[in-house]
Write a structure and sequence with these properties.
304 residues, 56% helix, elongated, two-stranded parallel ribbon, mainly alpha
C-alpha cells in the first residue's frame, strides 16, 4: 500500500512520499543512509542536462556506477543495456574461437582457407548462443533481483506509485520541469518504460570478465591434435575437458555474479524506485550468492 504521509522537499517545496530518499522533482536528498558515506554509494544531486554518450555510460558503469545509473534513469531509452548485451555476445564468440584454437587440425596447413571458415563458423555459433544465453539469463536474473527487491523495499509497488500504471500519458509544461526531474521532457514515464534496458546494464562486468577469460583460455588450456578426416578418438578431448582451468573460469564467473552484478543491479533498483541503498544491496547480494552457489559452485569442476 502506498504511503499517504507527505515528505515536503526543503529545496523545491514539492511533496514526496514519506519513504522517499530523494526529491522526485529536484533531486535533493531527503534521507541519508550511513552506506552513503562511501563515495561509490553516494546519491548524485547535480543538475542533469542531457544524457551522456553510451560509451561514457559504460565507462561510468565500471568506475562510477552511482553516476551511471543516475544518468541512465533520467533518460532510460538512452540506456546502453542492449549494447552491453551485444558486446558480451561478441566476446563470447571470441571466447569460443579462443577455446577451439587449442585444437590443432593436422589435416590442413596453418593458414588454409578452410580453417578460416572453421573459425568463422565457431565464432558465429558462440555469438548466437551467447546472445540467446545472456538475454534469457539476464531476464531471469532481473526477475529474481526484482522479487528480492519487492521483499526488501516493495519495488513493484514503489514503481507503480512513482510512475503510474496503464498507458495514459501525463503531460507537464516545460517551465514546470526541474532540470533534476525524472519527468523532464514533459511525459511521465510509465512503470515498465525501458526498465529492462536499464537493468541489463548491471551485466556490464561480464565485458571485462569475458575479456579476461579469453586471455586465460588462450594461455592456460593445453593444445591437442586432431585428425578430422580419419577415425575420431574421443580420448584426445580428455586433456581439454579435465583441465583445472575450468575451475578458475567458473570461480571468476561465480564471484562476478555473487558480488559485482548485484552491486550494479542495486544502483539500478535504487534509482528506479527511490528506495534504500542498503536494503536493496542486501537482497541483491543474497540472491546473487544463492544463484552462484547453485549455478557454479556445485559444479564438478569446483567441488570435485
Amino acid at each position: 500500500m502506498a504511503s499517504t504521509v507527505i515528505n515536503r522537499c526543503p529545496r523545491c517545496g514539492n511533496d514526496n512520499r514519506i519513504d522517499s530518499y530523494v526529491c522526485a522533482f529536484c533531486g535533493k536528498r531527503l534521507r541519508i543512509e550511513k552506506i552513503e558515506n562511501y563515495s561509490i554509494f553516494k546519491r548524485i544531486e547535480s543538475e542533469w542536462i542531457s544524457p551522456a554518450p553510451w560509451y561514457i555510460k559504460i565507462l561510468w558503469l565500471f568506475i562510477k556506477p552511482n553516476k551511471a545509473f543516475w544518468d541512465i534513469n533520467h533518460k532510460r531509452d538512452k540506456s546502453p543495456g542492449y549494447y552491453i548485451l551485444l558486446f558480451n555476445s561478441l566476446l563470447y564468440g571470441l571466447l569460443g574461437v579462443a577455446f577451439f584454437s587449442h585444437f590443432n587440425i593436422i589435416n590442413y596447413p596453418a593458414f588454409a582457407p578452410i580453417l578460416f571458415l572453421y573459425n568463422l563458423s565457431i565464432f558465429l555459433a558462440f555469438f548466437i548462443f551467447g546472445a540467446i544465453f545472456y538475454f534469457i539469463f539476464g531476464l531471469i536474473m532481473i526477475w529474481l533481483f526484482s522479487r528480492g527487491a519487492n521483499i526488501a523495499v516493495n519495488f513493484s509497488e514503489r514503481l507503480e506509485a512513482r510512475f503510474g500504471v496503464g498507458q495514459q500519458e501525463v503531460k507537464y509544461r516545460e517551465e514546470e520541469m526541474s532540470p533534476f526531474s525524472i519527468y523532464k521532457g514533459g511525459t511521465l514515464q510509465q512503470q515498465q518504460a525501458h526498465k529492462y534496458k536499464m537493468m541489463f546494464c548491471a551485466f556490464t562486468p561480464f565485458l571485462f570478465i569475458n575479456l579476461i577469460e579469453i586471455l586465460i583460455v588462450l594461455a592456460a588450456f593445453p593444445t591437442v591434435s586432431m585428425d578430422v578426416l580419419g577415425f575420431f578418438n574421443p580420448s584426445v578431448l580428455v586433456p581439454m575437458f579435465s583441465s583445472p582451468t575450468w575451475t578458475v573460469l567458473h570461480i571468476i564467473d561465480a564471484l562476478t555474479l555473487a558480488i559485482w552484478v548485484p552491486l550494479l543491479i542495486s544502483f539500478s533498483i535504487r534509482e528506479l524506485s527511490n528506495s534504500s541503498t542498503f536494503r536493496v544491496l542486501i537482497s541483491s547480494i543474497s540472491i546473487g550468492v544463492i544463484v552462484s552457489i547453485l549455478f557454479y559452485f556445485l559444479r564438478p569442476t569446483i567441488i570435485g
